[in-house]
């Protein structure tokens, strides 16, 4: 059989053709996946050279003054955090666990601590670790931070603790329609309600909390938006924030417009339009001199650099359709189950078959790839064009570099965990 892939196959470049789309599987990742022992599978394989090249492109598309923080929740592997180091201004962390881990993986780099429901222990740890930028999600969150910051002795010349008030701002309905995950513009537990804005600003500016400094506003409103919608959202966040600052006669130093750049699992070669987004952010920054704009993407930075690689254990027909059961499943790669999509993949044929009995295979042109879990929800990819798929062939599921291993329910059914590999 021949290698099958659900994404575009690379073709020979011609001088007038636009640049070839990024391949669904890089040569380095393919080589590593094929060189792994069967006992190493399933495996997460990350191509750090591909990650660096992509991050460099993203950075180059952003205007010089726009800051880029990586949302560590997308993939906190230490090697990933370190590889992104030269291209990012800092990292956004959302728990005490991320705070400790990221602080160790990329020591000395700026961290912004956000997330709803921060505990006093987590806030104390962040203050002790030297975090000076907090995304405050409620009036209570603000009071906790103020009380803990005031309890710490402040050395002469030490900067105050910076606060960005995270707001759940209204978003145009058209923007929300395209979003796969809306965190703002509708009732959610994220950020302060705009109705609390005046109270929050007064608490930070009436002299009652001298250890805190209001730096600005944070708003991560939705995930999965294309560049025009995300730009419109950034423009409305900045307009709302400048208006708030003007009403209170305070300086607005920073606005963080969040992450949420679209990643297409159906068309993996179509990537977020960073050029358009960067140019729009440049216009926005130019219209607000003295204001630092910041973004904090996760998925669109790291999704493309990771693969979940495994092997076909069994192939069978069921009621007229072919199913291939692979080693592992959605307890290792939960993304297709949570988002309800088919994970793009590449089949890597393996010729060796060590058993004396017939090798399970399909005569059908396509197979549905499932995992080992005892639930019909354990679907990795439906109707994959893979004629002649056989047991022992390998499969590399792409776009597994973000919200993949770290969001999965690893121990359901107690299968062994995947091995992890970094190439490049
Ligand atoms: C506060 C915050 N910032 C940034 C992100 C990153 O979003 P994305 O991975 O969609 O870019 C998230 C994701 O949930 C988030 O909650």
UniProtKB/TrEMBL annotation:
InterPro entries cross-referenced by the UniProt entry: Ala_racemase/Decarboxylase_C (IPR009006), De-COase2_C (IPR022643), De-COase2_N (IPR022644), Orn/DAP/Arg_de-COase (IPR000183), PLP-binding_barrel (IPR029066)
Cofactor(s) listed in the protein's UniProt record: pyridoxal 5'-phosphate
Family of this protein: Belongs to the Orn/Lys/Arg decarboxylase class-II family.
Keyword Nucleotidyltransferase listed: no
Organism: Streptomyces bambusae
Pfam families (alphabetical): Orn_Arg_deC_N (PF02784), Orn_DAP_Arg_deC (PF00278)
Residue span(s) of domain Orn/DAP/Arg decarboxylase 2 N-terminal: 51-303
Name of the protein in question: Type III PLP-dependent enzyme
Domain Orn/DAP/Arg decarboxylase 2 C-terminal: 44-401
Tagged with keyword Nucleotide-binding: no
Keywords: Pyridoxal phosphate
Region (Disordered), start-end ranges: 1-22
Biased composition (Pro residues): 10-22
């Amino acid at each position: 059989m021949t290698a099958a892939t659900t994404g575009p196959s690379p073709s020979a470049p011609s001088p007038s053709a636009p640049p070839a789309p990024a391949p669904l599987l890089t040569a380095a990742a393919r080589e590593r996946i094929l060189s792994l022992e069967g006992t190493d599978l399933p495996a997460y394989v990350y191509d750090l050279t591909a990650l660096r090249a992509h991050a460099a492109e993203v950075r180059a598309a952003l205007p010089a003054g726009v800051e880029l923080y990586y949302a560590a929740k997308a993939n906190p592997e230490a090697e990933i955090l370190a590889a992104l180091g030269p291209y990012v201004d800092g990292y956004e962390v959302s728990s005490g666990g991320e705070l400790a881990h990221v602080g160790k993986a990329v020591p000395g780099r700026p961290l912004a601590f956000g997330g709803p429901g921060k505990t006093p222990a987590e806030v104390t740890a962040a203050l002790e670790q030297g975090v000076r930028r907090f995304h405050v999600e409620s009036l209570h969150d603000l009071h906790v931070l103020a009380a803990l910051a005031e309890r710490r002795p402040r050395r002469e010349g030490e900067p105050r603790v910076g606060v960005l008030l995270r707001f759940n701002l209204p978003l145009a309905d058209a923007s929300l329609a395209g979003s796969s995950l809306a965190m703002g513009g509708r009732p959610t537990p994220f950020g302060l309600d705009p109705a609390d804005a005046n109270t929050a600003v007064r608490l930070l500016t009436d002299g009652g909390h001298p250890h805190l400094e209001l730096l600005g506003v944070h708003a991560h409103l939705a995930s999965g938006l294309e560049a025009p919608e995300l730009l419109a959202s950034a423009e409305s966040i900045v307009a709302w924030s400048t208006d708030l600052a003007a009403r209170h006669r305070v300086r607005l130093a920073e606005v963080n417009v969040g992450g949420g750049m679209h990643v297409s699992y159906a068309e993996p070669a179509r990537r977020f339009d960073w050029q358009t987004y960067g140019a729009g952010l440049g216009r926005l920054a130019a219209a607000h001199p003295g204001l630092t704009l910041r973004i904090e993407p996760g998925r669109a930075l790291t999704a493309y650099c990771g693969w979940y690689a495994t092997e076909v254990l069994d192939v069978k027909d069921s009621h007229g359709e072919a199913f291939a059961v692979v080693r592992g499943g959605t307890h290792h790669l939960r993304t297709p189950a949570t988002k309800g999509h088919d994970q793009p993949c590449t089949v890597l044929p393996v010729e060796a078959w060590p058993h004396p009995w017939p090798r399970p295979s399909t005569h059908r042109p396509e197979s549905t790839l499932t995992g080992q879990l005892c639930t019909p929800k354990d679907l990795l990819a439906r109707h994959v064009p893979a004629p002649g798929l056989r047991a022992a062939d390998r499969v590399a599921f792409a776009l597994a570099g973000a919200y993949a291993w770290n969001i999965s329910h690893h121990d359901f059914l107690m299968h062994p965990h995947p091995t992890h590999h970094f190439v490049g």
